[in-house]
């Protein structure tokens, strides 16, 4: 019997599961087989709820998807998919958003079903990233000849803007995105290879909160100038980037960027570092979903 899923409380706008929750559909289908999407919560086997709305959901059959830097509220759901490292006794699975950017086996079929990027919208122009590429060293004999730095951003988060202006004391920093009134309507991967560094801070610092920013910057051919949780070594190779959170001082951060940029050997050494030291696996996620769905369905049949 097909698993009936209902998606509620996701981001505003023309959200549909097929167009916007394609990674979740891929994961549920990989874990549980055939699925059906229903708009009726009452007829769903499992409700997948996010944090962008206030529609009431039945706690006992809800899996919460938290795509933001907040902890899951397990008083409102049976299980959760979040950035949180804490499993809360098996009820939460850490699902970082950068996984949505990877070319998992069979995922391209879901990715390719997406509608074309909306006119004027900054997202949806990039292709999936091969996992193997992130695990291999890089080299570029012309690295030092590239332009200095770029920031692609939609939100004027305070630290992001402060670092943007601070870095301009070292060299020209190009800006693209809504912050600059200059939305990039093409793949970032067509722009990033022209720069040595990419300033790519997260919107906030939270344990486990790592989005696509660091992955896109590295895959785009830059050295990431990042700001994010210092536990990033559980996901990434810290030797492949500069993390502002290791300095917590703009002057010290700038001094490290200046040191790298003035030393071609040090610059090339960091550039050569792979971003991933361990291959990520979907198996733990699929096992979590299978068990969660089985328990929810079992509870429903006994109600």
What does this structure look like?
The chain has 303 residues and is α/β, with parallel strands linked by helices. The protein folds into 2 domains: 3-102 and 281-302, Glycosyl transferase family 10, N-terminal domain (Rossmann fold, 3-Layer(aba) Sandwich), CATH 3.40.50; 131-271, Glycosyl transferase family 10, C-terminal domain (Rossmann fold). It is built from 9 helices and 11 strands. The strands form 2 sheets. A 6-stranded parallel β-sheet has the order 2-1-3-4-5-6. β7 (147-152), α5 and β8 form a beta-alpha-beta unit. α2 (22-32) crosses α9 (283-302) and α7 (250-262) crosses α8 (264-271). The longest helix has 20 residues, at 283-302. It is elongated and about 65 Å long.
Find the CATH topology of the largest domain.
Rossmann fold
Total strands = 11
Number of helices: 9
Given as residue ranges, the uncertain stretches (5+ residues, pLDDT < 50) are none
Indicate the mean pLDDT: 92
Order of helices and strands: EHHEEEEEHHEHEEHEEHHH
Within CATH, the superfamily of the largest domain carries the name Glycosyl transferase family 10, C-terminal domain
Radius of gyration (Å) = 21 Å
Strand fraction? 5-15%
Which structural class matches the secondary elements? Answer: alpha/beta
Q: How many structural domains can be distinguished in the coordinates? A: 2
Task: Walk across the major sheet and give the strand order.
Answer: 2-1-3-4-5-6
Which range best describes the helical content: under 10%, 10-25%, 25-40%, 40-55%, 55-70% or over 70%? 25-40%
Top CATH class of the largest domain: Alpha Beta
Q: What summary fits the major beta sheet?
A: 6 strands, parallel
